[in-house]
Each structure stands twice: as structure tokens, then as C-alpha cells.
Please model this.
Amino acid sequence: MPTPDQDAYPTLQTHPAEHGFGAVVRGVNFAEGPSDKVMDEVLRAWAEHGVLSFPDQDLSLDELEAATLRFGPFGVDPFIAPMPGRPNVLELRREPDEKATNFGAGWHSDWSFQPKPPAATLLHAKVVPPVGGDTLFADCVRAYEALSPVMQETLGRLRAVHSAGRAYGTQGVFARETEKRTMQIIVSAEADKTHSHPLVRTHPVTGRKALFVSPVYTVGIEGMSPAESQAILAFLFAHMTREEFIFRHRWAPHTLLIWDNRRTIHLAEGGYDGHLRVMHRTTVAGETPV
Ligand code: SIN
Model:
């Protein structure tokens, strides 16, 4: 008798985490270029689980780019210099002697300040430290669904204001940084611009609703005073990052991870000072959140 997962995914072996948020997926080789049939299963598994981890994917940069394009066209990555000759690949590199806070250390959904934030991010592990360096994901769909109907209805009428300013702006964290950082961050007045999106967005594939705010990039709620915005956002950030909504990804070399920025926020943990960590990252273009 096949398991339910074998029914849904005849080619893949999917091992979902608790609550079905996050899954380890075997049975696909991105270096070879999966068939359309396998990709159809991958895309369905991604829609179901939000974060997919593919172990043992020893990919060149060409193969990582090709894998990315199976999910959609490249997104636009601002404020970080890409790899030489690879405009669509970022190297997230932290040397053993770096003291600056590791990149991505606050909860965020990638580039949510863009008019069309990326649907997906892919991260490929090149060098993994022996301790620390996990990536944590919060399930913003279940967080939304756990709210009372009155709160859901109230939040559903609001628009949140997003900006890259706190991180990449002229007065932002990176502008004020004094410690050495290997990654080349491009601080810019452009980062101080704002863009608003629905505070609750509907996933274009699953139709499920998700909270779409994060401590790094959400700076307010349209039409509310700073104090009102802050009170609501503080409640939401604490709620979204409750233990029961979190999936913790532990890295191994050659793991390829893809996450859905439309239903998750994520955070890169530190704890590996004295060790090298190197990841290659691409994004997939998204749509206007609705
Ligand atoms: C990020 O893209 O936010 C960084 C994730 C990580 O390095 O684990």
C-alpha cells in the first residue's frame, strides 16, 4: 500500500517536517536537469511544504543557475555585489576571523520592499561550519490561521509599509558597521524608499493567506501612527516566530534549499565564529502581492 506521499509524488521521496512545513526531498538531481514530470512534482511539493531541502546536490554555478530557472526567471538582487561574471548569484561568505554579525541575522522575507518581491530564494551550501549557521523559517500561513477571525478580518484590511532602509540605507546597520565584512554591501539612499503591500497576502498557487510582515523590512502600517503600528507589529512578530511555527534547517555541504518568500520569513543563525561558511544564493522573480 503506497504511503500518501508516494501517491502525490510517485518519483520523489518527500520527508515533511512536523506540521508539513518544510520537507527533505530526494529523488531529484539538479545537476542532470530534472525532467518536466519530476519538476511538476517538485513544484507541487514546494507549494505544499514551503521550504524544500535537497541533499547531495553537488552543483557548479552554471547548474545552480539552471536549477533556479526551473522555478522561474531570476529576481533582482539589490544592495549586494554579485559574484564576478554572475549577475544573478550572490556569495554569502563569512570568514573565520569575521566579527561582524552574520548576514541575514534578523527575521525577514527576501526583498519584501520591492514592488514585486522574489517568489523564491535558493541557497546552495558550499562550506558549512561544524557548529551553528542553521537557517530558521517561520510559517506565516499557519501563524495567520491561528489568529482569531476578528483579528484576521482586521489585518486583512491593512497595508504594511516595507523599506530596506534599516539595513541598507544611509543611516542603516551596514552604513554604521565598523567591523570587517567580506560580502560587499552597497549602502544607498535608494534603500530608504518605502513600498506598501497587503499585510495579509494570498498565495498565488495555494490560495492560502499568510502574514506578510517582518522585523527587518516592515517599518509601519499605512494610516497608523508610529506607536499604533509598533504595537500591532510587535504583537505579530512575536506571534509569527512562536516555536510551533518554526522549521529549523541544519546544513550539510551540497544541500540545495529553496524557500517560498510568499509564505515564510527566515533568519540565519550565527554561532560559528572561527569557522568559514559559504553559500551561493539566487532568487526567483515574484508577483505583486495581493
Ligand atoms: C539569507 O538569505 O537571509 C541568509 C540565509 C542563510 O545564510 O542561512
Remarks:
- The domain at 4-284 is CATH 3.60.130.10 (Double-stranded beta-helix).
